[in-house]
Amino acid sequence: MKNIRMILWVALGLALLLNYSAWVSDFAPRDAAAAAEAQAKAEADKRTNPLGAAIPVAAPPAAAAPAGAVPPAAVAPATGDVPAPLATATAPAAAAPSAAVLNVRTDVLDVDVSLRGGELARADLLNYPQVKGEATPVRLLQSGGTGQQYLVQTGLAGNVAGATPESYPTHLAQFTSDFTGFEMQSGQDELRVPLEWTSPDGVKVTKTLVFRRGSYRIDLEYKIENGSAATWSVRPYVQILHDMPPVERSYFNVDSYSFTGPALWEGKYEKLDVSKAEDAALDREITNGWLASLQHHFVAAVVPAKDEAARYSLNVRGNEYLARTVSPPVDVIAGAAATVKETLFVGPKLQRQLSAIHPELGRAADFGVLTFLSKPLFWLLDKAHGIFSNWGLAIIAVTFLLKLAFYPLSEASGRSMAKMKLVAPRMKAIQEQYKDDRQKLGQAMMELYKKEKVNPASGCLPQLIQIPVFIAFYWVLVESVEMRQAPFFGWLQDLSARDPFYVLPLIMAGAMFLQYKLQPTPPDPVQAKVFMILPLVMSATFAFFPSGLVLYYTVNTVLTIAQQWNINRRLEASASGRN
Q1: How far is residue 342 from each of residues 80, 290, 314, measured CA to CA in Å?
Q2: Pick the CATH number of 76-245+253-366 from 2.70.98.90, 3.30.428.10, 3.90.1640.30, 3.30.429.10
Q3: pTM
Q4: How far apart are CA 317 and CA 370, in angstroms?
Q5: What are phi and psi of 81, to 5 degrees?
Q6: What is the pLDDT of residues 46-82, one digit of tens each?
Q7: pLDDT, tens digit, for every residue of 15-28?
Q8: Domain ranges for the chain
Q9: In this structure, how many other beta carbons lie within 10 angstroms of the beta carbon of residue 410?
């Protein structure tokens, strides 16, 4: 009995600690004056030295190396930024909105490509409405000014110290095109969008964006034709500019607890907190990694060429950040040509498409610390969906499979609770007999447990073991864009949102109450009251959770009831046979 009480107190203490931590994070008092001053400074910096005008530059040439040293050409130069006045001398940042754009439309994307640098200035996801049943699609990229800047900028920066930006096809350079728009036609699987730039000394660069049917991957290709009299050295780069206003967290909005911000892969998945100095000062050389800007369900990412060491950096100013990759130098000798490729992704966190680009890019769907459990659960859900073509039925099928997997534990737990229920009258008699002597009461209860081979804790421990699976399943349902706005039946038309009429939470509460009635009544009155009100507390808590999660828990409870009823029936029949 002490074990059960201890488990309950520990669980309650953890719940209170987690709630307190969330409250402090969400509602702790902040220095409003300091925050306003920092914000004002950041806004002033944006106007005088915009992050979007930054261009990576080569380091100054090093001093002469001693004999036998590695030649300077073999060493990748350091990465820096051109100061804003220089970077914007020929193309001020304020001119960006007036730059001509090409509209590109595929079956899944509607994108504006600016002729100023080939910048991805807008991206609408045609198959993902902002509100279910309405026509307005999710707008992932946009160039709406302060608080609404989310751009993908690409270019070739000079690899010569002191090179001026206008001498290279950076994201500030002016490109030309013979077209005003591109649209993928029926039966067309690939759409190529070429942009051209020519330097004063005869270097021609054709920058081509490649879109494919049904895909959110965008391949970036540079064809460099060096018609000059000297070797032309450049470094390809991609940068994601995101002006990210703070999000107010709310218990009533599960989306607000999803991570928003930059993340990368360097042998492990890292989310970067732009408010921390060490993350905001990111500057690393990474091979076979990726860099992304995340938000709930959607992502913009860049994957540098495989087996090449790229420079990853982050620059933060207020709520705005610039995440960048700079690839190794490309040298094109006079009269020669070369091709450079980069891979971009702009769209929903679809596991199959992400993993096809990079084996670890699927981690952009952030399943948390229990990813090792969440990924197999998602795999099961995906396979079940392939069979039933309904995510609600897939959840029910996977819940049934999980119940089978945990059947031995559940059976042991159920048998223990059934035995406790059978000996409950004798326990109550012992309590009445020794109600004034707690020491003798404890001894008598232990003797009864030993004689009947009953372990009070065995009914709770199997349930605790299943908690990590429940948490992993929660993150799968919350983070998987495949579940976003997915219908079940009847009134449940979005499994990623709460039940609009709270019907499923009420069904869950009724099922939990029935489950409670099948279990032995705890001898401790306090425990009995806790277990009695637990269905009400759980249903109130789950009322604002995604309905897919409530469906899982309800089905799991119903299966537990069926199993417990069967165990009780068999044990009662066995006890009647002995009598």
Answers
A1: 20, 11, 19
A2: 2.70.98.90
A3: 0.81
A4: 32
A5: -130, 140
A6: 555 688 888 887 655 444 333 333 333 333 333 456 4
A7: 555 555 555 554 44
A8: 76-245+253-366, 377-578
A9: 21
